[in-house]
Every structure is written in structure tokens, then in C-alpha cells.
Amino acid sequence: xxxxxxxxxxxxxxxxxxxxxxxxxxxxxxxxxxxxxxxxxxxxxxxxxxxxxxxxxxxxxxxxxxxxxxxxxxxxxxxxxxxxxxxxxxxxxxxxxxxxxxxxxxxxxxxxxxxxxxxxxxxxxxxxxxxxxxxxxxxxxxxxxxxxxxxxxxxxxxxxxxxxxxxxxxxxxxxxxxxxxxxxxxxxxxxxxxxxxxxxxxxxxxxxxxxxxxxxxxxxxxxxxxxxxxxxxxxxxxxxxxxxxxxxxxxxxxxxxxxxxxxxxxxxxxxxxxxxxxxxxxxxxxxxxxxxxxxxxxxxxxxxxxxxxxxxxxxxxxxxxxxxxxxxxxxxxxxxxxxxxxxxxxxxxxxxxxxxxxxxxxxxxxxxxxxxxxxxxxxxxxxxxxxxxxxxxxxxxxxxxxxxxxxxxxxxxxxxxxxxxxxxxxxxxxxxxxxxxxxxxxxxxxxxxxxxxxxxxxxxxxxxxxxxxxxxxxxxxxxxxxxxxxxxxxxxxxxxxxxxxxxxxxxxxxxxxxxxxxxxxxxxxxxxxxxxxxxxxxxxxxxxxxxxxxx
Length: 551
What we know:
Blueprint: E1 39-48, H1 50-62, E2 69-74, H2 90-99, E3 103-108, H3 126-132, E4 136-139, E5 153-157, E6 166-170, E7 203-204, E8 206-211, H4 214-226, H5 236-244, E9 267-275, E10 290-291, H6 292-301, E11 307-311, H7 318-330, E12 335-339, H8 351-370, E13 374-380, E14 386-389, E15 393-396, E16 400-404, H9 410-415, E17 418-425, H10 445-458, H11 474-478, H12 481-500, E18 512-514, H13 522-535
Helix pairs in contact: 2-3, 6-7, 7-8, 8-13
């Protein structure tokens, strides 16, 4: 049972206290005089789908004026990706901002240009366009071998107008495939995935929009990386290429960081990260790495009693799902719902089976612990095309919610750089002032509304034109974790039966399909299984490269 005194001020029992981050070198936990390792009084909104995020980001960037600050990090940046129609290409939008005097600074791990549409001579990376306009964008390769910078953030600061300050954190890159909406017809600017996803892969994703003091925390994350004095790359070939192309490799100074924006909402937010224990000299802000994302999950999961709701790109790695399995074994009333891609990202005789074996192992671990209390689903659009789930969301008991760049796999918890926000709302859910089970302080408004918004979409209960079983009153039913678990199961069963019956008659409402791992040919299993077990984690990274990365 949970402690009877609830979570304490600001969700202290759910969030990492001072020292629990495991990284005393970061400035994040020293920014506040009261010693708290989170910020209170924020206003946080989930932006579900790339189209929603891109349209808002475009409007916010266009409103910037000379002297304002635009900071961003990304795993991938495609300069021609349109935010909202022709003329809104991300490279053009950022360049115009720099041209009118906005201070534009970016860090990209690398930029993947579409070789079918661009030549390297014309568009080496997104940074070239920005730098030609007066901004600065660096290719940051300061990672462990086989790793990447996977953080996805944008910070917009307005000197003299702090009420406008805003930050965006989540799973959406500024690149192709991401600009999709709730209909899930896919981004018209697409890169190919597995053939099952078609020419324009439907894409499900989420980003947070954050206002309030947390903006200062997220800016501090950017500044720590920007001010790292280590070379952008240790590769001799990369260094030669930088010299040959006269690439910018030295970060210019940033303006001094302004005071944090004033409180403006009810959400407490803790900024969480993963950094590896970088070889040949660690990060000055994380000399032994940081695994606060993994530690935060460990702490929050220990309080789970009713429902863990996940949306995740992978859900791999038995060492990671063991944290979830531990709680499922210990609490017989706890259920887990996972929404994941039905089909691996890429076809391949080796990579596909290896990925599937990794997921199968994780699923078996969860089901050994929770049996029928564990349910995994894929998504499809109304044409029957699978939706690629790229979202990284976890909601625990409608109290603690996490959205970020991190997946439920070992890579995200130990090896790549990641950025996530854990949100605890000081406002209880107004519909249920007390949790029905009497465990703790009950549901919080942000976590519950986030889960309900996502579940209603997958049940087709957001669209008043679709006769979903619970109609527009679905939210009230879905508040109960058992009813929510059963609603997903019933919706998926109906859609599965419709497909099995030859798709005759009206299509049932909903987009959920029960996840059933495909059977793999014996030859593929024989080839993939030992590599998966001995050499490569299912996230695709050699085992020996993560020896020093422990939680």
C-alpha cells in the first residue's frame, strides 16, 4: 500500500529528490534556492500529432523578433520539411528568423538528407541554411560509439516579454514523416518504412508545450551541451571533412540566461535525461553519465497500483521491462496497456527478426508477471494501414506522466542522450476527487486528461461523427482503469473479428488491433536469436559498448 500521507508537496514521493538523479555535476538540481529538483507553477499542454505541433511551432517562430532567442536540439533535421504547407520549410523558417535578428542556435546529431531529392553539394545539412542567414547550427557527434544525440527540444525566449517564453519537448523530430494528424494519412514528405506502412507511413507522435519556470530548466539542458568544450567529433575523417567544407566547429557564446518565467499554471515538472558515460573523458555536466530517466521510472513504478498506460516505439529489452514486471508481480490489481507499432520500422531478413525477438522476449517477461493484466495493441487508420507509433508516453495511475524522446529500451535508458519531462499536476481530476481505491491522493488532472485524450482517439471517441460505443461520454467511462482496460480489449476484438470475417459490413469504430507477434521462419530464428542474445541488444547496439552504463 502507498503511504497514507499521500505524495507530499509537489509530488515529492513521485519525483526524484536531490541526490536521486545520480549526477551532482549538472546545474539542473542547483538552480533553485529551496533546493527542489523540479519546477512548480507550469502550464503544460500535450500536442498530439506532428501537424498540431508543427502548426503551433510555426506561429511561435514567426512571432519572434530581433533579440529573441531560439534554441533547438534534434536527432534529425530535414531542411525541406514543411511545417504547414508550401513556404514553411523548416530550413526557410529558421533562416528567416535568423535573418530578422533572432538569435538562432541549434545542435543536430546528424542530418539525414533524402538522397532521392537532394545532393550533398546543395544541402549538406540543415545547419548550412541557418548559418548562411546568420544563425549557428552545429553537428554534435559527442556520443559513445554506436550512440546518438536523440533529444528533441525547442526553446523560445523573449527578453523583456517573459510571458511569451515557451519550450517544446517530446518525440517529434523536425524531419520527414512527422507531419501527420489524427486521420493518419501520413506525411506527404515521406521516407520509406517497412512495406506494410505504404508510401506515406501513418505516424503517431506527441510533443509537450511548456510555459513557466520549467522553460529555464530546459534552456539549461541546451546550454550544458552547447558549452561543452570537447571537439564536436573525434573521428579523423569527420575532422578532415569539417576542414574541407569549412564547417563551423566552435560554438559561439550565448547571451546570459534570463531569469525563469513566472509561474503560470498548476503543473510541477521535472526534467529528466539520459547521458552515457562517454569514453575518453565524460561530459563536464555528466562526467559519469546520467540515467535520471531510468531512475525516475524506477521510483514512479514503485507507486503503481491500478494502471500503467504506455505508448512506445519499441518496448524492448528484458532488463528494462523487468521494472514493469516487478510491479505487476507485486500488485495483483495492476494492469498494463501498451500501444506499439504492429510492424518493425524496416523490412529485413536479419534486422526485422532481431527486433521481433527482442520484443517477444520483453512481452513474455511482462506476461509471466501479469498474465491477462497485460495487453499490447497496434494501431491502424480507417483504411486498414498500420500506424507507426513513435510516441514516447507513460502514465502511471493517472498521477505521474512522462513524455519525451526516450523509448522503453536499454539504449534510451543508458546509451543515447535523451530528454523527458515528468509531470505531476497539483490539481486533482475534478471528476473524481478521490481515487476509487483509496490509494494515495487520487488522479491528477494533467495525467488523466493526457491518457483520456490518447485513449479516446484510439477508440474513435474524439470524432462526434463516428458512433463509438461510449460516444462523447467515453471519458467518464475510461476514468476507471478496469473499464478502460476492458474498453480497449473490446474495441480491438471487434476490429480483429471484422478483419477475420473478410471486412464485410460496416467497419467497427476504433483503431486498435491486438498485438500478436508474427511467426518467424525457423532459419531466421536460428540466425537472429544468438546475435540478439550474445552480441546485439534488440535496439541494435553491440553489447560490449554498454558495459559501464548501469542504472
